Amino acid sequence: MNPHPSRCRWPPRSAYLHIPFCHRRCFYCDFPVVPLGDHADGEHSRSIAAYLELLQAEINGAPAGPPLSTVYVGGGTPSMLSPGQLRQLLQALRRRYGLAPGAEVTLEMDPASFDAERLAGHLAAGVNRVSMGGQSFDDAVLERLGRRHRRADLLQAAGWLEAARRRGELASWSLDLLQGLPGQTLEHWQAQLRQAIALGPPHLSVYDLIVEPGTVFERLEARGQLDLPEPDLAADLMELTARQLAAAGYGHYEISNYAQPGHASRHNRVYWSGAGWWGFGMGATAAPWGSRQARPRTREAYGAWLRQGGAAAAEGCGPGEPMPFDERLMVGLRRREGVSLWALAGEAGLTPADLEPLLRRWQPAIERGWLLREGPRWRLSDPEGLALSNGVLRELLAWWDQRSDQRSVQRPGVGERPAPPPSP
Ligand code: SF4
User: Fold this and answer.
1) Domain with CATH 3.80.30.20 in the chain
2) 20 C-alpha to center of ligand 1: Å?
3) Alpha-carbon span 23 to 348, nearest angstrom
4) Cis before residue 76, ω within 30 degrees of 0?
């Protein structure tokens, strides 16, 4: 008998596919990627083909579910796939689940990894939304980030995307930018935002640079060679982003995401709503029934994991823990509409007394107006609270860790912190 029947009533309607290939690894990136070099050759093609076989095998053997409403093909640089390869992957999903009418199908694309003809092929294969990693319009910055594309590539690619949208071939597209870069000033960032707005992307994702372990940037930081903005400037950059994009008609629907009306990413909302999703591919995170499960981060380990049965055993309906309270609260606070704290606590079996230490930690943010209580909902104010969200979320994690430590003394074996949210 299934021990968790209620969970099985709401199987995922979203899927994430991870394509790990990139030409080279950017200096700040710790994603599970396989750098193939700048020039396509036979080895390059064989690597991609072999991986796609594994990925299709994983999809074919996955637990059944209803038709998908959103699909996100991320990476890596998925635009390195040919339209034919992408078509095959989407067909595998169609065979396993089907696609619901109007399903949002997003492909991550990198400037300089596609041209107008390849874009047309990808759209014909079934893609209707593109997320493009632009990061900066400044060639010197792109060089320092270790990016392969340059400003001219970005402008040209954005032109192709916007033209496809105007012709009705593409429903929406998004541009990713990085803020908080070494040496960045308010003036420089303001100019970057102006250029982004001028291109007319219906959606913008603006991520704070994070120095991850094992990256080139980490080594530079350790040597004192990474001139990152001080916390006050970093917060000013975030506030500037929110104000400038609001003035240009973009709604701030999540900490890092802005959209013109009707262009918020439906797939992203799944991550932040607590609903489940399937995940396929090396390093992909899946959360079909609650807590997140990350796949092995190398091709070899991923292949071995598939040969041992893959997700079928671990992710069939029933096993697995629900998403932990701290994670649900954190993803809820990332959204503009916030979260119903008491309802969430009740579902997790927490009493108001349990939450008192957390509210004490949050008191300074509440007094400054960064964290607002509106009826049952708690949310970060816009732009100050969202810009300074790290402090609020850090207090949340510290409270949860402390609570878990205390509980683990009484009950050894409390589980590990789950994998972080999937990176876009
Ligand atoms: S940042 Fe993007 S393009 Fe650069 S290595 Fe990472 S996944 Fe590849």
Assistant:
1) 5-273
2) 9
3) 44
4) yes
Numbered ranges of CATH 1.10.10 in the chain: 325-410
* pLDDT tens digits for range 360-418: 898 888 988 889 988 888 888 887 787 777 778 888 888 888 887 766 544 333 223 33
Fold of 5-273: pyruvate-formate lyase- activating enzyme (3.80.30)
CA distance 287 to 21: 23
Is residue 70 within 8 A of residue 103, CB to CB? The reply is yes
User: What is the three-class DSSP state of 391?
Assistant: helix
Residue of 25, 72, 113 best suited for mutating to test ligand 1, as the one with most atoms within 8 Å of CB: 25
Kindly report the length of the chain.
424
The class that CATH gives domain 325-410 is mainly alpha
Query: If you write DSSP's letter for every residue of 366-379 in order, what string do you get?
Result: HHTTSEEEETTEEE
For ligand 1, atom 4, which residue shows the shortest CA distance?
Answer: 26
Cβ 158 vs Cβ 131: under 8 Å: no
Cβ–ligand 1 contact at 26 (below 6 Å)? yes
pTM: 0.85
Nearest to 227 by CA among 184, 179, 177, 178: 184
